[in-house]
Amino acid sequence: MSDDILGVADKLWRGELTTEQISIMGHFGGLVEVTDDVAFLPTFANVSAVSTSDGLLLVDTGSPFVATLIHEELRRWTDKRLHTAVYSHGHIDHVFGVPVWEAEAATNGWDPPRVIAHRHLPRRFDRYKMTAGYNAIINRRQFGVDDLEWPTRYRYPDETFVDDHHVEIGGLGIELRHEKGETDDHTITWIPSKRVLCCGDLFIWASPNAGNPQKVQRYPGEWAQALRRMVELEPEYLLPGHGFPVVGADRVTQALTDTAEYLESIVDQTVALLNAGARLDEAVHSVRPPAALAERPYLQPVYDEPEFIVHNVWRLYGGWWDGNPATLKPAPESMLAAELAELAGGAGSLADRALVLLAMALGAEERQASDLALRLAGHLAEMAWLASPDDQGIQAIRHRVFSTRAEAATSTMAKGIFRWAARESGSPSA
User: Fold this and answer.
1) Top-tier CATH class for 331-424
2) Which CATH superfamily hosts domain 2-263?
3) Band (24; pLDDT cuts 50, 70, 90)
4) Per the confidence metrics, is the pTM higher than 0.85?
C-alpha cells in the first residue's frame, strides 16, 4: 500500500472510504515520503521518520509485535543510523522499537541512539510494572488476545523535559512540546522548516480516545486546548499516532479544530450537568457531540465513544460517585441479583425477559429504540447470570445477548468488553 497511503488518506477525508472499511489500528505496511526527507510508516501505532545529515529522527518506534518489521521497512528507505527517538507518549504500542536499533548500532560500531520523552513518561513505565497483571487482563479483554502478556521491561528515555525542548540534528531544528490529552506525558514534535507536525495520539482519525473505560484518567479539556495550540503552528502535514496523514494546511486546521470543538462540547455539557446537581446517569444519556461534527469521517466512534468520554469528564471534575445513593455503599452485585430474581420468579425469568428484549431490539426500526432494548437486555442477562452463574441455559442466554451487543457496537472498547462477556458465559450451545 506504500504508494497508496496518501491516496487512501484523501479518500477517507472525502468520505469515499470509511474508518470501518480501513481500520485505524491495523498494520497496513508500506511507507510513504510525505515531503522531502520525511517518511510515514503506518502500523498498529504509526512511526514517523526524518532523515538528517547526522542520522534519523524517529517519532515513536512501534509496538513489541512489529518493531523488527518497522526497522526492515525503514531500512528499505535509508541506511542512516538512528540518532534520536522521541516517544510521543508511553503507551506500549509506541515505545518498543529502540532495542532493535540499538542492536544494529552495536553491531556496526555506531553511537547508540538517544531517547527523549516528557518527564512524566518514566512514571508511566513504573506504574505499568506495578500493574502488569491488571494491564494484561484489560488488554486481553479490549483486543480479544487471550494470551497477551504485559511487558515489565522498558527502554526508559535518556533525556526528559518539562514544557518545551529544542533539539537540533544535522542542522535541522526540532521543537518538542508537552501537552495533556489522552495521557499526561504527551509530546508533540514540530519541525518548522518542513511544516510537519507529529501529534501522537492527540489525533487518530476517530472520536478521541478520551474515555477508555478500563484505563486511567484522560484530560479532554486540556486535550482541546492542545489541539488549538497546534493549529496556531500552521502545519501543512499532520502525522498522527494512528490512522493516516492529513496533508494540506486547510485540512490540518479543520481536523484539529473540529476535534477540539467536539471535545469542548462534551466537556461543557457534562460540567453544566455537574453544576446543576445531575446524576451521572443523566449525563451519560443526554450529552452528545454536535451532530455536524459527529458526521465527520475522522471523528467516528470506531475506537472510543463520546459516551465514555462523559465518564472521564465526570471522574475528573466530580469524582467516582455517580450521584445514586444506592451505589455509594452498594450490596454485593450477586446478592442484589438474587433479590431481583426472587421478585421476578427466578433467575430464569430475568433471562427469558432478556431474550424478549433482544428480539425487540433486533426487530426495532428506530436505532434508539433498538439500542435501549439491547441495554436493558444486557442488564437482565447479567443479573440472571449473577443470581445463577452455573445455570447452563442462563449462560447460553448471556452469551447470546452480549454477542449481539458486540455486533451492534461501533467501538473497539465496547466490542472487546461485550465479546469478553460472551466468552466468559461459555459455549452458546451449553
Assistant:
1) mainly alpha
2) Metallo-beta-lactamase domain (3.60.15.30)
3) confident
4) yes
